[in-house]
Design a protein that fits this description.
The chain is mainly alpha-helical. The protein has helices spanning 2-12, 36-47, 55-60, 64-72.
């Protein structure tokens, strides 16, 4: 889980207008400037790590905790 969280934060860093080191696991990332284009970019970046997640997977589960669980279960 720690590796997944670290990777996720590294991929999020250039996409949101918020310091990823201060994100709480329950923060809704849709409120951090992660619009639909950026979320599609994130899904593409995650696919480079071998994850198969869609825009809708991310949009329906918009917190760090949700995303880590989603990635750990793919």
């Amino acid at each position: 889980m720690t590796d997944t969280l670290s990777m996720l934060k590294a991929e999020l860093d250039p996409l949101i207008e918020h310091d990823v080191s201060t994100l709480a696991p329950s923060d809704n990332l849709l409120f951090m400037g992660l619009d639909s284009m950026r979320m599609m970019t994130l899904a593409e970046r995650l696919s480079r790590h071998g994850y198969s997640v869609s825009f809708m997977d991310l949009a329906e589960n918009p917190t760090l905790d949700d995303w880590v669980a989603l990635l750990d279960n793919t």
